[in-house]
Amino acid sequence: MKTPQLTRSTVAIALALQALAAQAADAPTDAKDSKEKLDRIVVTGSNIKRTDAESSQPLLTISRDEIKASGALTVGDVLGNLTDNDGRAISDLGGANSWASGASGVSLRNLGTGGTLTLLNGRRLTSYGFADGLQLNFSNIDAIPANLIERVEVLKDGASAIYGSDAIGGVINIITTKDFRGVGLAVSAQQSLRRSFLAHDRSGSVTVGHGSLDDDGYNLYGHLEMYQRGSYKDADVRPLLPGWYVEQNPARLQLSSGSFPGNYTGRYPANYKDPALAGKSFTTPAPRCAPENLVGGVCLYDYWKDSDARPAADRLTGMLGGRYKLSNDLTAFTELQFADIQAKYYTNVPRSQAAGTTSTWYDSLKGELQSFSHPALPVGHPQNPYDFPVTLAYRYVDNPDMFKNVGASFDHRLVVGVEGTLGGWDIDTAVGDMGSRATQRQHLYLDRYGYTDAVTSGQYKFGQVNSAEVLNKMFPEMGSTGHYRQQFADFKGSREIYQLPAGPLMMAVGAELRHEDFFHRSMDNILQARIVGFSGVNIGGKRNTAAVFTEFAAPITKQLEATLALRGDKVFDGFGAITPKLQLAYRPTKALLLRGTLTQGFRAPSLPETGNGGASWFNNSLNDPKRCETARALRDALKTGNAADQIEANLAFNSGCSVSFPSSVTPNPDLKPERSNNASVGIVVQALDNVSVSIDYYNIKRRDEIGTPDITQILQNEDQNPSLVPRDAVSVQDQLWSQRAKELTGQTIAFQSGSIRTMRLQYRNLYRTRVSGFDIDLRSRWGLGEWGKLDLNLEANIQSKLLYWDTDAQAWRVNRIGYNGVPRERAVLKANWSRGDWKLGSRVNYSSSTKLAWDEWDDGYYQSQGCADRGEPESHCRVSSWTSTDMWLQYSGIKGWTLSANLFNAFNEQPAVFRRPAGLPNLNGRVLKLSAEVKF
């Protein structure tokens, strides 16, 4: 049986379709409008100028008015509203744990940033200075000014035959205003109506333009835009957390024994002078612990007040442009796009670790594992009251602001070219330079020498505020720098080359030359393995690429047109790819269009994948099959003890069931390009002049995907390849947990395997992916006479397959559709009414229910069985569907001014219950955005 939400959604869509079929509307028919409809333009996905109506591809166009109605503040907001955007691409919101801090990408059709091509005015953007996951070069959509967008065209089809690499799952072409006169100002601000600090964002822009291309022969414009994202801490939202979330994430309410001024912890020596204490463990608060922090005889610290639940971001983006008529047929143009971005991520203030705890990491330069043993306070230390070495569980709160992680970048893109008509050809040629320089800096991890010296010598004064010099010695600045640079030259031209009986045969030809240069390098203290637990990266590469392409549009009959495109890309002294594309469009009547596409796509191996050097990183929160069962048992035993044992219980559990360890990967110059076979077929029905409905089926098979062996699979099959998983010996801390568990329960619970050290990997062509589904796009405009006009649109994506390849079994894994994060249906129903100076609209956003399990291996959260194993009802193993409604109001009755308001989640829909440990749910509730624009 369908869920009530889905039933209501289906009924709403059916009623909307019925209303559209039952009404007629006035459509503009004056000569000017007719002429505008026949103008040929460059349409995303083709090199041949044509009208929108001639497009034989599934192309979604989002107008400036639609963007305003959606209330989008940023390009990320605009693209986040796409039903084909799977929302799984890198986001600057998670930059604290990202190798590409301060940037956001976009992913269509669950194919990732490497399967989606983003264009600005028909040409590529620069890749970000850092690579996504140390692997994929991608464009940072945060670098594009949102208030200058004229429209966004989304090609929901592969287009490598037109644009080259990356255009596998689709193409997003962001088109900005190119002819602006006067001065325009715009400001926007939003915040939650639940708490003012939630969703607290601001933006503002100024646009200045002079000259008319038609009247003066030139136009110059400049645009500058500012965006600020408000931040708040994890502790700030603690009172807002729903009960089901706290139940699944109890640590959100817990405090830490790593505190200020700390707790002495350890075990009395077996031969201690007092036999009653010999061999016993202890936890004793250090002097001067604030009374409100003493709980159960332990000094505790609220570490949630230091970490960001939502990080701050400051973005300054802009564009400068000009167009100059060289003649009646040729126009010179230039564009300079730039962005200066900074994102700040406050993390937990560091704490000391138990004496003898070993941290391991990978030395990228020497290719060796490194280890560090955390020091104890020695006998005679000013802060050690015992006559044996002791651990002080301590939080370094001297200067919490010091420990923020700052991701910053500066991007630029300069294009100079000529377009127009020359010798009967429609031409477009340009040269350009683009680049991105990114940095990531923080003070958080220990210097292996400076930290030990400051702690053991007494130079660091525990319980006091220490100098910046001492803190910098212990926690030096660390991070990395990345730089991507590209120079290019391109040319394309199209024209009619022959008159066929059914119409003109159109041809386009073109070529591109590109030089790319990339490096990503950690700071020297990381590469020298001075920073404890932090592995480094030192990768780089450069290449020159050439491409030639051609395209033909041939009317076979008056009703049938075929388009054939062919492109060849070649890296000098490297790999190459030849990519064809065939499109057919059959229009038996004016009201009906049948269309289909067969094409191949490819993604060129990135410079990090094929260059030189290497990288290493930490895998976080993984299940270690050889330790997790014991870790669960230790947790249960320790929970029967005192307050300190309660805290240790979670640490023991994490040591086996939520483990972290380093992996290293090296580039592979022998990689092949990723390839895909794409097929789509669709129907467009336009029974009325003002109503069109399109339904398109897509099927994409991607092969030779570049990656490394799956870490989870390696762990599950460790006994078959033990050399891939080197382990340490059982640690002192492991033994201490076992001893304490025996004291509390009398049971012997001991790890048989030590912690994982690392994994050494290399990029290989390993994987495959298959995706398929349906896109539905309904657009209409209804004339209501004196009551104005009504736009009623529906966009929906229905996914039918998402299959990943199992390299061990050499077979497809289970269909991922309907699992966590991959809803089968996503839909947006939009209604916008306008009359005179007023506009009013709404958006209904819908996402269908999913399983709680991420995949078929996620046994603990499987529907029915997973819940039964935990003694919970079956409903707890699902995430319910989610529907929200946004509303919009605009007034333009004051000369030159436009005022608008957006109310997001107008009916205060609560976040779907998610019964497993996870990041914060959406706590915003209703959000109000106010905007004002003026032009003079």
Automatic annotation (TrEMBL):
- For this UniProt entry, which residues form the secretion signal? 1-24
Compartment(s) where it occurs, according to its Swiss-Prot or TrEMBL record: Cell outer membrane
The protein's matches in Gene3D superfamilies, at most eight in alphabetical order, are given as:
TonB-dependent receptor, beta-barrel domain, TonB-dependent receptor, plug domain
InterPro entries, per database record: Beta-barrel_TonB, Beta-barrel_TonB_sf, Plug_dom, Plug_dom_sf, TonB-dep_rcpt-like
Q: Which PROSITE patterns match?
A: TONB_DEPENDENT_REC_3
- SUPFAM superfamilies in UniProt: Porins
Tell me yes or no: is Transmembrane among this UniProt entry's keywords. Answer: yes
Q: What is this protein called?
A: Iron complex outermembrane receptor protein
Origin organism is: Roseateles saccharophilus (Pseudomonas saccharophila)
